[in-house]
Design brief:
Length: 421
Amino acid sequence: VALPPETERLIARRELLLGPAYRLMYDEPLHFVRGEGAWLIDAAGRRYLDAYNNVTSLGHCHPAVVAAIAQQAATLTTNTRYLQEGILDLAERLLATLPPALDRMMLTCTGSEANDLALRIAKAATGGSGVIVTETAYHGITDAVAQFSPSLGAAVDLGMQVELVPAPGDPGAEGDAGFGVAVQAAVARLRRRGIRPAMLIVDTMFTSDGVRPGPAGFLAPAAAAIRQAGGLFVADEVQPGFARTGEGFWGFQRHGVVPDIVTMGKPMGNGHPVAGLAIGAALVEEFGRNTRYFNTFGGNSVSCAAALAVLQVIADEGLQDNALRMGARLMAGLAGLSDRHALLSPPRGAGLMIGAEIRRDGHPDRAATAAIVNGLRREGVLISSCGKDHNVLKIRPPLIVGPAEVDHFVETLDRVLEGVQ
Ligand code: PMP
């Protein structure tokens, strides 16, 4: 693809300064200079519908969050070694969204750190070290967490203590107990290698596994299986949390389970780096007695102000309900397209977390998926793909998306599918 000279110049400069581990999205990389609501604006002033970004879930630059950050930054930013009310207000508000058994909060800056901390706590609480994850899971970037993030690919060695289970199938593909049976088998494999399990950790919408919402309930037998083996059940809510699924504030709630640890991040600060975990008092006891936890920026005053503002906006603007309603509209639109376009399978998802497979003659079509993602980008609509076979369209508009934007998405995808052979 021939790129504009300015794009070429930025790419070259980036390679020189940042090195090869940084990857750009799309055949024709984008350079944004501004964002508002569901829209991103590039250097030439062109507007793109952001149907991919689940960080700025309230819309880009939401004024209430911007004001909260600015006000706190202009007043004081300090850390958890001093008394401050913001972190306590935030912990109270977050814990109120969670089951009563989860009654302690710990704050970090990133989802990776939250999962890393979950592992440390799980090891201390169980005396085990084994970790069970799904085949194409992503949980983060620290050395320990990358070892249980198989979606990073062959370049990252999975840890000796890691066992993989297949992601749960589509509704009807297996019984409710299928995932639990797979977890039991993974526990047995760990045991044969002399490893005691510390935790089963899953993204409760199985996003990087290709978005696997159902059948709701299949997590319960899996949670029971890991607990029976002495390990913890950790819900990674970095993707589904904060009302995205519409059906619950947290993804695990769709399954009627109570995790031992809930990790969270991404949309928690609407773009400001703030993340953390919720846990029960008894489980964090062993860890807390033997070590201190100080994270310089985790739980700083500005991050807490940002996260408090996010919770307030979700409540004030009824965004969980909007996610449910707009999600249903989007699913209906996509279902209509799948009736007319042979490549597009019926969509699956909950709220505004949606996946739709691209298949040709029944087989996953990675090339066509990439063509559709890049075709949408050329038409000014942003999504990406996921799944073991890289053939699932990953669709995650912000929670504030409106009916006109949803319809615009469906019309644009219709046009792009028309052009993909
Ligand atoms: N868990 C899941 C499910 C994620 O999707 C991600 C980020 N894509 C992470 C953890 C890591 O979060 P962060 O990038 O904030 O470290």
